[in-house]
Every structure is written in C-alpha cells, then in structure tokens.
Amino acid sequence: MTKLRRSFLALFPIVAATSLAVAQTPVITQISTITTQQYQTIVITGSNLGTHAAYTGDSAYISFEDVTKDPIWQAGYSGYNDTITLIVHQWEDTRIVLGGFSGAWGEYNYTIAVGDSIQVEVWNPQSGLGPAEITTTAVKEPTTTTLTSSPNPSADGAPVTFTADVTSKAGPPPNGETVSFQKGTTVLGTGTLSGGSAVFVTSALEVGKTSVIAVYKGDSHFGASKSAAVSQVVQ
Question: In the CATH hierarchy, which fold is given to the domain comprising 144-234?
C-alpha cells in the first residue's frame, strides 16, 4: 500500500497538490447582520478559514470594505488602502468573530450607513489561499421592546405604571428618545428612554380590560420595534 501511494503521488503530483489546495481554500457560507454601530459583533462562518490569534489592527488575511462610501474605506487588510482598524476577537477554522472598529472610525465619513454595501474577504492564514468573499447590506441595529404594568389588576382611578424596556445586541438606544404607549393606534401617553427604559403613569383607564402596547420608532442607528400587548385590568 505504501508503495502504491508513493507511486500515485509521484505519477500525479499536480492532482495531489490541487487536492491539498482545494481542501485549504477558504469558503464563507454566512455573515451575521452588519449594522451602523462602531462596536458590534460580526460573525463570519464558513470552512477552511484557518486560525489566527485575536488582535486589533491589520493583517494580510481579512478585508472589510464599505464600497458605498465616498471615499471607500477598508478595515483589516494591511496590504492596500486600509483606513479603519479592525477588532478581531476570535479566528477559528469555521468561525471568525469581529468586535467592530477603532482607529479612524468617524473621520472623513468613515462610518457605516444604512444601505451601504459591505464586502468581506478572508484568506486562510496557514495556506495563504483565498479570498473567500461575501457581500451584504448594512441595516439598523434590531431592537426588542417589552412592556409591563403595575399593579395589574388596579383599582378604578388608581395610578398604573407602564414600563417599556428597549434592548438590542448593541445595548439600549440613546437616552432621551421617546416611547409611545398606545391603545391600538391611539397614543395614551409617552415616556422618555433612560438606560433603555421608559415609564408612563396614568389614572385615566376605564374600568374593564385595556390592551396597551409600547412602540419605539427607532432612529438612524436603531430599528423600530413594538411590544406584545399587555391587558391591563381595572376593577
């Protein structure tokens, strides 16, 4: 068997080398949502991505480029036109985790806007093969709004406190933004976000059940969301 294997490699060196190269060629199968945030978690999944120690800076093995911006800016790649510093948290053969950007972020329009086309390329650090490439569109940071009320049930004419919490993977939206508390499309009142929470207090609910939702309209970075309905019982 050993002789046969050696004979095969001797007779077909190009085939053997090609098979080895194909096995180490990186492939990107998916990239997580990319938002407009500076510090965000971006997960690249695929195969044969190689391995690399975590770092903040540039290398010859990954390129993150906003091809919509004018001027076009690039992060991560040390070989050409790099303007932004890329934060790499984890680099494994099937998964790369990025932690956002530093350096020149914010200078000369070096930011990400909703709708920008983002092109990511990865080379295998061990084989040098690649790049694997994927292109995606930047979106607003998705948010989730939850609503609670207290007390529930409540007495007729007694104050009821509605609390809305707005969260995202990038943290809460900025303080001072508004959440609407609604009965259907009718706005019962509003609250101002502080640390991701907004409060509305009312004593004007009618006896019986009132279905209330909280609506966050979003901003240039955070997407809109609304809560599930809370059935407030007034006795």
Answer: Immunoglobulin-like (2.60.40)
